[in-house]
Fold:
Amino acid sequence: MNAIGFAWRSLVRQPARAALGILGVAAVGALLFDMLLLSRGLIVSMQDLLDRGGWDVRVSAGELPGSGLRIADAVNTAEEISKLPSVQAALVMRSATAQIDRASGQPLRASFQGVTTRSTDPAASRLRAPWTILRGRDAEAPDEVVIDEKIASESRLEPGGEVTMRASCVADLEALPATRLKVVGVAEFPFQTTNESTTGGTLDALKAACGGNVGAEADLILVTSKGDADGTAAAIRTLRPEVRAATNTEVVGRLQQTGFTYFRQISTVLTTVTVSFAVLLITVLLTVSVNQRLGEIAALRALGFSRMRVVKDVLSESALIVGIGGLLSLPLGLLLASGLDRILKGMPGIPVALHFFVFERQALAVHIGLLMATAIIAALYPMRIVSTLPIAATLRDEVIG
Amino acid sequence: MWLVPALAGAQEAKPADVLVSRQLAESEGLAVGSVIRLSTDAAGTRAREFRIAGIYEPTPDPARLGQVPRSVRLHLPDLLEMTRPVDVPAGAEYVSSVNVALVDPKDADQFAKDVNARLPGVLALPAGEAAGSAGPFRVLERFHLAIAVVTIIAATVFLLALSIMLVDERRETVGVLRLIGLPVHRILVQILLEGLLVAGVGAIFGLILAVLSEQLINQFFQWRYDTALVFVRITRDVALTCVAIAVPLGASATVVASWALLRRGGLRLARR
Structure:
C-alpha cells in the first residue's frame, strides 16, 4: 500500500476528527480564497466596467473622472479631439439632477446623462452611448430618453410611455418648468449606484429638460482610439493641456493608488492571518495525532517501514486533510464571496455592476500554492517527530504504559 | 486650488492668513510666516497672496485613506472672493454645507425638522444621521463582522477536533475515575471547569496579544498612509465580547467532545 492509501486509512479510522479537520481547513480555505479574490477584485471589475462600450480614453477636468470638476467648452474640445488622426470618436457626457413626476406619490429623484458624439470616422457609427439597451431602442431625438429598470418599475413606465421631468443643470435649487419626454428604451447604466436612478438621452434632450440652461461645460469626454490608447491620451494632453486624459488602465492605476488601497491592505492582512492560523492548527492536529500513534509508528518501523516511508505517511495525511478541505473551500468560498460582495455593495456610491470579489485563474493558482505550502509546513514538525523516533524505547514505553 | 510660485517684488501689503496641512507643508517646505500664492487654476490667473498663520494636522478621514491631504484652510470670504465667477455678484455664491452648533445638542432632531419645514430646498440633518444608514463605515463594520463570524466558525471546528483528540488521550484516566465510583455528571463538571479554565487563560492570552499588536498595527498603518487615523482600538466592549464568545465556546467544545466518551462504560474506557 502506498503512502497516500495508508494515510487515507489512518483518516478513515478516526472519521470524526478527520471530518472536523477537513471542515476546519474548508472554512479557513474559503476565507483565504475570498481574500485572494478581494485583493484584485475591484481592479478587475473596474477595468471591465471601463472597457465596456469600447471607449478607451477618458478626458476629465479633475485628476479622476467623476471628481465633480467640469470641462469648459466641452463640445468644441470634443470636436478638436475627434480630428486627431488616432481618434475614431469622442463622446461628450454631461449629467444633471432631475425629478420625474409620478401619477401618485413623491417625484423620483434621478440623474440625467446627456451625450453627443463627434467623429470624422465612418467606422464610429457602431459606437454607442455608455449604456446598454435592455428593451426598446436608444434615444436619438431631443424629446426622447431611455430610463433604467428602477424608474421603469417605480413609475410603471415602458418604451412608448412619457415622462414629465424637471432637470436642473446648474444648481439644485433651480425652479424649472416641467418637460415631457418620450421613453424609447430601458437601459442599464454601468456606473449607476444601488441607491440612484438614471435616465439618458442626447445632449439636446438634456438641454430641453434643463430649459436650455446647460452652458458649454461637460463632466467627461469619452474617446475611442483607433488602437493606440496611450498615444491618443498623450496627443489629447498635448492638444489641450488644461484637461486630464487617461487610458482606462491609467484610470484603474490611479484608483488603485487611492480608493482601492483599503481592500488590498485588508486582503493582505487577512491572507497572512488565515494562512498562519491554518498552519498552526493543522500542525497541532497532526502533532497530537502522531503523538497518539507513536507506538503504532514504532511498530511499523520495527516491521521494516523505512524512516522515509513513515515521514511520507505523515506528509500524505497532511496533504489529504488540506487537499480535501481545499477542494471543499472553493464552492464554500464562492458562496461566501457572493454574501460578502452583497454586504460591501451596500456602500454608498458603489456602481451596481462593480464587484469586490472577482474570480481569476491567478487567484486560484495562488490559493492552491498557499494550501500546498500549508500542507508541507504544517507537516514539518510531526515529520520530524516520526523521523527521529527511537524504535526500541518507544515500544518499551508503550508496553510498560 | 493651485499653489503657484511666488513672484519677486509682487507682495501684497498685508496678505490674508491661511492654515496649511502638515503634509502640504512638509512636501513643499512651507513654514509659519511664509507667504504663498494661491490660484483657482494651473495657469495662476487671479492668484492671490496669503500668509501661513499656522500648520495643522487634518482631522483623519477614513473616506480619504491613501490620499495625502495637501490642503489649505482659508477664511470663507477669501475663498468665495477667489472662486466667484465674474458674472456672479458678491453674496450670491453657493456653499455646499453649513455646520450648526446648537446650545443644546439634544435639540438636533427638532432643529433639523424646523429648518426643513421653514426652508424648502434645504436639507438639514442631525450630524449623527448625516452619514446615512448605509454609510461606508457601517458597511465595513458589517463586512468585518461577517469575516469574524467565519473565523469563529473555523476556529470552533478546529477546537472541536482538538478537544476530541485531547479527551481521547485521557480515555484511560476517565475510565479509572468511573471505575472508582465517580458518577458521569461529576466527571463532566470537572471537565467543564477544566475547559472554562483553559478557555479563560486562552482568552486572556489572546487579549494580551491583541493589545500588544494594536499598537504595532496602528503605527504601521499610520506610517503607511501618513495619517493620524486609529485603525485598531480594543475597547472594553470589544474585549468583553471576545471573552463572552471565547470562554463559553471553549468550554462547550470540551464538554461536547467528552460527552461521547462518557457514555461508554468504565471498563471499556480503561481498556480492561
